[in-house]
Task: structure prediction
Amino acid sequence: MKKTLLAAALLAGFAGAASAQSSVTLYGIVDGGLRYQQVSLANGDGVNNIGLAYGQQSGNRWGMKGVESLGNGNNAIFMIESGFDLGNGTSQQGGRLFGRQSWMGVENTAWGQVRLGRMLSLTTDYLVNAVDPFGAGFGQLNMGNAFTSGNTLRLDNTLMYKTPNMSGFEAGLGYSFATGLTSNGGTTGYGFATSNNSRQLTLGAKYANGPFYAAASYEKAYAAETTAVNGQSVNNWNIAGSYDFKVLKLAVGYGQTRDGFWAGSGAGGTGATLAVTPSGSANALVFAPGVGYNSYIVGATVPVNAVSRVLLSWTMIAPNTNMKDAYNAQNQSSFNLGYTYDFTKRTNLYTYIGQTVNYATIDTAKSTIVGLGMRHQF
Result:
């Protein structure tokens, strides 16, 4: 249960003076357990890793979000969220204090909301978080491992507008003036000249009506003009949805990425790997004209009873001819199985197993991962 704090003395450093019309909510997740992962190649090269693992189902975090009435149906809103390593207490997302999300804005029930700061791409928000049976968690098992522009992709310096919910329909449009993503073009800072920064357009829409959910998104990243990839851009569109038949919830999705690719959080998440992006590069964004791939998912959530569920999915990256020629990239297929058991509404046990063939689209690379853990939300 989330704690709503009205006492300004507890959070004055973050929320300022509070009043009867304002509130600040403190929340978080702690998630830890055990994991085994083996990554190997057909030539016998490989690595194994077994030990404690953190943030397997959901990244460890704490955060605060707040709202204050400005009158006439208008509210000031904010959200700051910090990711951390439960094993050693250090900050994640490159050591940022509020690396998961950090934004402020204004909202109105009639016209929607405007945000500015660091936030999720709309592919992450509308598709992966909502459609994926694995809920953007469990490392290489989640949908973002194939739909990489939604692999928990966060954009710095973003201005975003979201419509109000209109009978289940909602849409969003955002533009990052300096994404902060590393790329083969370099330049991750926020320079004075706008065109000297890596920029990105994110666009999405979703519709929810009873058991039916559908979403679509479009992403376009622009290279900084001062780099060797000046004038290049990466394009991506996706469509996905789910339907809850009660006996199972079925999810399907399809996407196309062209002229490069995103790596998002990196294929396989943390732990022993031979590669972290579809090309083996350490960049979060690669500009490469003509290079591209198609993404697929078929998944299901099967209730066992009121407190437990079986999760299943198959995902695939299918590189186009240019990507195959440039990187010797092969079709990456992932087969995933998970199980969750709720002790309470806030605490659950989980276990999972997944295997990815041609891991990170590397020919003959195979990644097998098995995990067990517990998650507590507050």
Observations:
- The mean pLDDT is 89.
